[in-house]
Amino acid sequence: MKNTPQLPLTLVVVGALLAACAGTPEEEAADRPDLGQSTLEASKAMGRAMKDGAVAFGSGVGTAYKGVRNGFAKPDEQTSFGPYPKNYVRMVKSHMIRVERYPNDSRFKIGRPQLGYMNKGILRGGGVAWSGWLVDVQVETVSLTRHKARGTYVVRIRDDEIIEVHKDDSLLRRVKDQAPASARR
Hints:
The chain is α+β, with helices and mostly antiparallel strands. The protein folds into two domains: 9-70; 88-184, no CATH class. The chain has helices at 9-21, 26-31, 36-70, 88-98, and strands at residues 107-110, 114-119, 128-142, 148-158, 161-166, 172-174. Strands 1, 2, 3, 4, 5 and 6 form a six-stranded antiparallel β-sheet that branches. β2 and β3 form a beta hairpin. The model is unreliable at 63-69 and 180-184 (pLDDT under 50).
């Protein structure tokens, strides 16, 4: 089925308003039904839609301005990072083999978990979107031709579950003050 473009409701209403405002000869006016009331209702509906659209647009601009003005937020004292990940070495290795499709004989260097967070986009206010634990992982594989390949990743963990694997950490922030896990739950 061919996708045909549809005219937005605004264009239809504007067209109706223009047609209603066009001058007609006296003899044709008697044959035409009175469009005054329906035109008035349509223009009121269009006015309400424009107001609602302006409010929504203004809200989005305000959020974007707040993000640009304030920059990226940092987690506050009440931010929960979840418990320290248990068995994170086995969990990360299993995930990299099963989900990321690394061979079973790959060599893994897995760092210690660090508190971390990720911000919302600057146009969305820059607030904290995620907080949890970050684990640095380096994977080394050897191909059939004995070529060694390395991959470096950062794994996001929250509540003993792997949330996502990142190829770089440009979107992730590490908490400088590494408070004990019990203090940041």
